[in-house]
Amino acid sequence: MERMSGLDASFLYLEAPSLHMHVAMAMTFDPSTIPGGYSFARIKSSIATRVPRAPVFQRRLLEVPLHLGHPVWVDDPDFDIDFHVRLAALPRPGGFRELAELAGDITGHQLDRSRPLWEMWIVEGLADGRIATIVKMHHSTVDGVSGAALLSVLFDLEPDPAPPAPTGVDGTPGAGHPIPSGLDLMAQAVAARVLRPFEMARDVLRTGQRILDVRRVRMVSEERPGLGKAALPLTAPRTSFNRSLTRRRSVAFSAIGLADVKRLKAATGATVNDVVLAVCTGALRSYLLAGDELPDKPLVAVVPVSVEPTGPHAHGSNQVSSMFVQLPTQLDDPMERLGVVRAGTLGAKEEHHALGADTLLNWAEHATPNLFANAARLYSRMRLADRHRPIANLVVSNVPGPDFPLYLAGAEMQAGFPLGPVMDGMGINVTIMSYRGAMYWGIMACPESIPKVWQLAAAVPPALDELLAAAGLEGAAYRNDEIATAARVSGAGDVGFAGGTGPEPVAG
């Protein structure tokens, strides 16, 4: 048994019928590299043998009676691989548009909390005999970085590796670990509450000091050239995608070259993440201009930051904090936009360091389950996100991936598109992962907020071209014509594919 951290539990409390707190990833594979050839049974069997090597795949939630404390993780004695690994098919020959439509439909449904919080769909029917997977895991289980590491348990570095060495651990779910009784859970929760007032008093004092430190950093930033300020919550302009959510989700993909991004990094002195944010800014500017809704002030993005906290709350699956960064879509000059982004991220990092990486994690420990969950559902049900300025406009996350090939049951991975959750008032999540020289963009949206999500995806490569030209560099060397074709918008009336509007996946 493992008690959930406050931050992990908060992702459960935030969930509502229209707000799904899971992360996902869509990947394509070449099955011709599988020794003995592809079959769904072979893929599922390979996954089943790997699952015991990562206990997170076999644990489920157990609520504390009366919600006196955060839930706990326990081994699921009824774990069934058939429930978690499923088969789906696209109309042949399926492409990236059809895969994204299926991903939108799958991510538009909540996970079953009575079972381990993950699903993997093996997708057949892609063009050229390829297959795909769509993996969905609850955010209380993983963040972006730990999720990528967790998936590595399922992957190999060659198509036909030697059998893994025995771990010496009984892989049977629940072996030697009886499920605790309700009285045990309540006793532990009450014991934890005894220390809560002292911990809260400590966090109040510590946070007050850190806020003063942040104020000093902001004052110093005015005197240091090239150093900007972090954006503030509730200062974002309202756009069409900043509204309350529905259950439905739409997905789109894009891709640019990592080497092209690094050329810009070297030429401008920016970081890879700065360039990615500037590309995202350019794509959003194009999208907003096309809809005749470009605001005259910068957008605000929430940028997750992986942290390594210390102290009593340095446990849990999520080790993440966030920065608020300005995306100056109102500026016409792409190099000026990159300069503002670079200065803003520098300032945001200094303020984030002054505030402390573990501040969010520590305060999350004080979340009261009943109050937090009921408040989140009331906020969603009353559509309060439509009644105040957006906390931020969107979430943008950049996760580094491997530069070498990965294999799932012998099938070589060709592309991987990470997908993060959207929030009430922030109808877009843009998540990027690098893999073998490419940066794959997964865009998750609420179709009522952004019906032309493929139009935004199509604007990503031109935004990179614009930056390269402004920096006096040659055009992009990397092109993925298949993804570009999928993302191409044929006209103003083309709304693309909105996941969740079609039939259920063809499952077996």
Short description:
By secondary structure, this protein is α+β, with helices and mostly antiparallel strands.
Descriptive terms for the model:
Chloramphenicol Acetyltransferase; single chain; 14 helices; globular; disordered C terminus; 6-stranded mixed beta sheet; 508 residues; 35% helix; alpha+beta
Describe what you observe in this structure:
The structure is a single chain. The chain contains 14 helices and 15 strands. It is of the alpha+beta class and 508 residues long. The chain has helices spanning 6-13, 40-50, 81-84, 96-107, 144-151, 182-221, 258-268, 272-290, 334-355, 359-364, 369-381, 453-458, 460-470, 481-487, and strands at 2-3, 22-30, 59-62, 72-75, 85-94, 118-126, 131-138, 250-257, 299-306, 320-327, 394-399, 407-408, 411-419, 428-435, 438-445. The chain has two domains: 2-160 and 180-190, Chloramphenicol Acetyltransferase (2-Layer Sandwich), CATH 3.30.559.10; 196-401 and 419-487, Chloramphenicol Acetyltransferase, CATH 3.30.559.30. 35% of the residues lie in helices and 20% in strands. 47% of the residues are buried.
| Lateral strand order in the biggest sheet | 5-6-7-2-13-12
Question: From the alpha-carbon coordinates, what is the Rg to the nearest angstrom?
Answer: 23 Å
pLDDT < 50 runs, ≥5 residues: 311-315, 489-508
Give the amount of beta strand, in percent. Answer: 15-25%
The arrangement of helices and strands along the chain is EHEHEEHEHEEHHEHHEEHHHEEEEEHHH
